[in-house]
Design a protein that fits this description.
There is one protein chain. With 171 residues, this protein is α+β, with helices and mostly antiparallel strands. Helix content is 33%, strand content 19%. Helix 3 packs across helix 4 (137-151).
Length: 171
Amino acid sequence: MLQEVVRVEGLGKAYRLGTGSVGYVTLREALTRGPRRWWTRVTERGVRRGSHPGEFWALRDVTLSIREGDVVGIVGRNGAGKSTLLKLLAGITEPTEGRAEIHGRIGSLLEVGMGFHPELTGGENIYLNGAILGMPRRTIQRRFDEIVAFAEVERFIDTQVKQYSSGMHMR
């Protein structure tokens, strides 16, 4: 039986709207805001369920499990919460509700080209990204040719990434 490597239960992430820059809060402000927030939650309609008028839920009540060896695609329209889910699973941000258990390592590249240095060559960027993902140098060396073949950039591997076309950059 294959082991469960990701287990997500009731996962949700809310963001505050209209707060502008996050400054510091004095002790006095914290003490006076607490009772005011509680009173607002008790008296406003629909807020008792844990929402707040200034909150936006990017992700709510997600439950899933992924077993070792599964291939998973996350598909959805803009604003569906795909990137938020990846950020939560990778530990980049903390959930507002629910929990995610991860057994093993997770690395999340949320943007095309994230982690690429334009002045470095394609090959140098392979090593850089491998290091960012926590791969040992030996593993990168062993898989280097496979990575280059997959990206279909063999002829340009010693060229600076800033010289790559957008299609080559994506691969």
